[in-house]
Design brief:
- The chain is an alpha/beta fold.
- It contains 13 helices and twelve strands.
- It has a five-stranded parallel sheet with strand order 2-1-3-4-5, sandwiched between helices. Strands 7-9-10-12-11 form a five-stranded mixed sheet.
- Helix 3 runs parallel beside helix 4.
């Protein structure tokens, strides 16, 4: 049948009903198209026609119908090839295709499903079957589109939530960084404050002696002189530590951000840190200490300031844990164990429960609220929950680790392992 004869019919029957599902009917037989049109229009659908595969492909892309009824046996390009091309095109691949065919061979049906068809209509056409299958696939299409929209909305919400989460995590990380800096700076500041308090006590004693007109004995003057000397050394050491920490922070914040690792004797770090904290531990808190250092050098590759800060954190925690102990005692041990240097910091304090041990190295988790129960409020014991977290991170960054053993009422022992330099060469 000539195109000139069909054109008026296409114009007359391509009725557009805005809001109604659009269906594209593809068949080279004019009579079949008219029959399908009558069935579909009477059911309230908007119908468009194509007489060959090329028209079908063009109409599908320009009209974007909800459903395509496609004849298999057509000249030039058959329905299988049309369906294959449709399913390989991203724009129209989701439009369901129902084949219309007189073929009954199972192999032909399987081939249709292989190229992407959703269903079949057999010739001769049954009106009720056409209505039922079209209705079913339009419902499936609508449901699929709804799910697609839900998924797109869900992806949008997830993307927005992810952005908010990233912003919140960045803010939390910044807050964590600030708290960590404050936590680390508190050590040398506390030592400096301890030195100042001792100096004030000596000055007060001298002032009282002068006001009372009583000359201090030589023994008393010697004692004050030693304490004043220790106080000055403590304050100078704390000031140096503070300066080192500030320099370290500036390096970390620079573009290079290169950590300075050097070969260090672990014993030297322990000695310096104990001297640094002696006034606070011994004079102020009356804590006894037993120190057993390995007789030979324990050379490790590390950052001196960071390792010293780890020891400072452990000693500070031990001091707090022994708050209610009548005879507080610290034990610090270094030794060589195979290819590792070992440092142990033990106390006879209140100990840690098994539940708390499982969370001990989590950021912002602290046990200090449980030390002494109600009395801890009087002692001023507080914690950020960052000291052990940052200590573990520092030690692991140089290939080491931190372990802990403790039980309520039986004290706590931390074991720090750091690879020896010789083992890594």
């Amino acid at each position: 049948m000539s195109p000139d004869f069909e054109s008026p019919w296409k114009a007359a029957f391509s009725v557009e009903n805005p809001g109604f599902p659009q269906i594209l009917v593809v068949d080279d037989d004019f009579v079949n198209r008219m029959l399908l049109r009558e069935i579909l229009v009477s059911s309230g659908y908007e119908v468009h026609e194509a007489s060959n595969g090329y028209e079908a492909f063009d109409f599908a892309k320009s009209l974007m119908p909800e459903l395509i009824l496609l004849d298999i046996m057509m000249p030039d390009i058959d329905g299988y090839e049309v369906c294959k091309r449709l399913k390989n095109d991203a724009q129209v691949k989701d439009i369901p295709v129902i084949f219309i065919t007189a073929l009954s061979n199972p192999a032909d049906l399987v081939r249709g499903f292989d190229v992407g068809a959703e269903d079949y209509l057999s010739k001769p056409i049954n009106v009720e079957e056409v209505k039922a299958r079209v209705r079913t696939h339009l419902k499936l299409r609508a449901a699929t589109e709804k799910v697609k929209r839900y998924n797109e909305e869900l992806e949008r919400v997830v993307a927005e939530s992810s952005k908010e989460l990233i912003r919140a995590e960045r803010q939390a990380a910044f807050g964590q960084l600030i708290q960590g800096i404050v936590h680390n700076l508190r050590g040398p500041l506390t030592a400096m404050r301890g030195g100042i308090e001792i100096g004030q006590r000596i000055l007060s004693a001298l002032t009282n002696a002068v006001e009372e007109g009583a000359a201090p004995s030589q023994k008393q003057l010697s004692k004050w002189s030693r304490e004043a000397s220790q106080t000055l050394e403590l304050t100078a050491s704390a000031s140096q530590r503070l300066n080192e920490m500030i320099n370290s922070l500036m390096i970390k914040g620079s573009a290079d951000n290169k950590r300075e690792l050097e070969e260090l004797d672990l014993n030297d770090i322990v000695r310096r840190e104990l001297d640094f904290l002696s006034a606070d531990l011994e004079f102020k808190h009356k804590i006894g200490k037993e120190v057993e250092l390995w007789p030979e050098k324990l050379m490790v590759l590390a950052n001196a300031s960071e390792v010293a800060q780890v020891l400072n954190n452990l000693l500070s925690n031990a001091k707090d844990a022994m708050y209610q102990v009548s005879s507080p005692q610290l034990r610090i041990i270094t030794k060589c164990q195979g290819v590792d240097a070992i440092m142990i910091v033990a106390d006879n304090g209140c100990g840690i429960s098994s539940e708390a041990l499982d969370r001990l190295f989590e950021p912002f988790y602290t046990t200090k609220g449980s030390i002494g129960e109600g009395d801890n409020k009087k002692s001023g014991l507080t914690g950020t929950g960052l000291g052990l977290f940052m200590s573990l991170r520092s030690i692991r960054s140089i290939g080491g680790d931190i372990e802990v053993e403790s039980a309520p009422g039986q004290g706590t022992a931390f074991k720090i392992t750091i690879p020896l330099v010789a083992a890594g060469k």
